UniProtKB/TrEMBL annotation:
Residues 22-408 form the Glycosyl hydrolase family 13 catalytic domain. It comes from Variovorax paradoxus. Pfam families: Alpha-amylase. Belongs to the glycosyl hydrolase 13 family. Its EC number is 3.2.1.10. This is Oligo-1,6-glucosidase. SUPFAM superfamilies: (Trans)glycosidases, Glycosyl hydrolase domain.
Length: 552
């Protein structure tokens, strides 16, 4: 399809104005008592998501998998793993979601398959197999050993020798996750067909796993040493991924994927692509795919993970938001992420009080917010004893704090057995605080994190200034992150006090009259704010009337 004939995405596209909620399916809700969350479980909880106010769910992989990397090792792109249910369960889930106005986004894992995928079994059967070139096979180095110095993101070399055919295959992650050869057109065609399989079943988009890794150097040159590497850190960071990540050829694939999903846009709306991209700002922006005619042909939402690694200080975050806004190509939709299944939870990174401030930040910035399940009730990372470790990353690199089990524990629904997650003992232990910290308790407590999330989400939905308005940075003094969100005559001012002490706010920022719309604290909402003094670690959103614009 000619890009200029494409329907431009409307300004009110659901993925621009809405909120995405990530479900880690193993840990959300178990319906059949095997201790593992499943699709019927998710379906049972759809009304919770509607009440929370989110617009779309992204579900981490649910395809058939040996579960070496808990579903990120796929052995069939067009099926459902029996642990999660059946295709019929999936169809019912999509129907149930759509009936409630919720979109469904699947996880697409194109960089690698499982080593049990029939493609890899064929590919490894002989050097002359027709599927040999679907993966990346190389002879040993001249003196023996791996073909080059490339490292697996999960520790150790990125190459494993297949003794039967005497060649090494490449795996950017586990040896059970061989990398596909995206230079091979047959691989591309097969993978695009997998996308169409789910699009035909009604899915509203895909989150694309490690999108930037898809293409590797054609001559397999060694990666250079990383001069900034700190010994003791994640060993895969000892080299710069110059020849293994973010190669120019990836952009062509992104455009092709975009073409595949755009062909399915219909009256229900666009189908969205979200890219998992851990890249420096300028390179991240490349994935919007701005072409010479000003058309954005890349993924609609290249995940912006900057808040995940940021130092939790007003000036640091202020700088980062400004730089991000300034770097966006014309017409590009911003987005913000606070947490995911690979990173420590926000409540553990910054503490429970500051996590309330983080919620207000996420839900008042300009751009699509993505919430990680459980963050809306303030779930924290859970210490997993060594003999209960599940994550292969932790097993490969024990004791370095790289494991991801702590942020993947079962959702804490109620004070009932196993926190209402399952009738049986869950696959991964529950947090120790589940009996006190759960949805049931927080639902009836107006001061809870859940109540705060619901208020902020409702406000974001109700206020076009928040979900579709402009953003303008403000200067409200040290330790205060301040910005305005405006649409037409409506002006909202957000003030986030990162200090552990009170902070007074200059009247000039508040116009002639300012009404408090939301606070992270116990502050009567809707009341006229005469002299505004913020509590320690308080965030407020105000509607400002008769304001003079005060860009800093
Ligand atoms: C992505 C996923 C992560 C997975 C890895 C390999 O980073 O988010 O969970 O282990 O890719 O597929
Ligand atoms: Mg189950």
């Amino acid at each position: 399809m000619d890009s200029r004939q494409r329907q431009p995405s409307s300004p009110d596209s659901w993925w621009k104005n809405g909120i995405v909620y990530q479900i880690y399916p193993r840990s959300f809700q178990d319906s059949d008592g095997d201790g593992i969350g499943d699709l019927r479980g998710i379906r049972q909880r759809l009304d919770y998501l509607v009440a929370l106010g989110v617009d779309a769910v992204w579900i981490s992989p649910i395809y058939p998998s040996p579960m070496a990397d808990f579903g990120y090792d796929i052995s069939d792109y067009c099926g459902i793993d029996p642990r999660f249910g059946t295709l019929a369960d999936f169809d019912e889930l999509v129907q149930g979601a759509h009936a409630r106005g919720l979109k469904v986004i699947l996880d697409f894992v194109p960089n690698h398959t499982s080593d049990r995928h029939p493609w890899f079994i064929e590919s490894s059967s002989s050097r002359s197999d027709p599927k040999r070139d679907w993966y990346l096979w190389r002879d040993p180095a001249p003196g023996g050993g791996p073909p080059n110095n490339w490292l697996s993101n999960f520790g150790g070399p990125a190459w494993t020798l297949d003794p039967r055919t005497g060649q090494y295959y490449l795996h950017s992650f586990l040896r059970e996750q061989p990398d596909l050869n995206w230079r091979n057109p047959a691989v591309r065609a097969a993978m695009y067909e997998a996308l169409r399989f789910w699009l035909r079943r009604g899915v509203d988009g895909f989150r694309i796993d490690v999108l930037y890794h898809l293409v590797k150097d054609a001559s397999f040159r060694d990666n250079p040493a990383n001069p900034a590497f700190v010994p003791g850190g994640d060993p895969s960071h000892s080299l710069l991924p110059l020849y293994t990540a973010d190669l120019p050829e990836v952009q062509e694939i992104v455009r092709e994927m975009r073409g595949v999903v755009d062909a399915f846009s219909d009256a229900r709306g666009d189908r969205v692509l979200i890219g998992e991209l851990y890249l420096p700002l300028a390179r991240l922006m490349a994935y919007y795919g701005l072409d010479s005619e000003g058309v954005l042909q890349g993924v609609q939402l290249p995940f912006n993970f900057q808040l995940i690694g940021a130092q939790w200080q007003a000036d640091v975050i202020d700088r980062l938001v400004r730089d991000y806004e300034a770097a966006l190509p014309p017409g590009a939709a911003p987005n913000w992420v606070l947490g995911n299944h690979d990173k420590p939870r926000i409540a553990s990174r910054v503490g429970p009080e500051r996590a309330r401030l983080a919620a207000m930040l996420l839900l008042t910035l300009r751009g699509t917010p993505t919430l990680y399940y459980g963050d809306e009730i303030g779930m924290t990372d859970v210490d997993i004893p060594p003999d209960e470790v599940q994550d292969p990353f932790e097993k490969n690199e024990p004791g370095r704090g790289l494991g991801r089990d702590p942020q993947r524990t079962p959702m804490q629904w109620s004070t009932g057995p196993h926190a209402g997650f399952s009738h049986a003992s869950p696959w991964l232990r529950l947090a120790g605080d589940w009996a006190a910290l759960n949805v049931e308790r927080q639902q009836s407590d107006a001061t809870s994190m859940l109540a705060l999330y619901r208020r902020l989400i409702a406000l974001r939905r109700a206020e076009p200034a928040l979900h579709a308005g402009a953003w303008e940075p403000l200067d409200a003094g040290a330790d205060i992150l301040a910005y305005a969100r405006t649409v037409a005559q409506r002006r909202l001012v957000v003030l986030l006090n990162f200090a552990d002490a009170q902070r007074g706010i200059d009247r000039a920022l508040l116009g002639e009259r300012a009404d408090v719309l939301a606070s992270t604290h116990e502050r009567p909402e809707g009341k006229h704010a005469e002299r505004l003094v913020l509590h320690p670690l308080e965030g407020v959103a105000l509607a400002v009337h008769g304001a003079i614009s005060m860009p800093s």
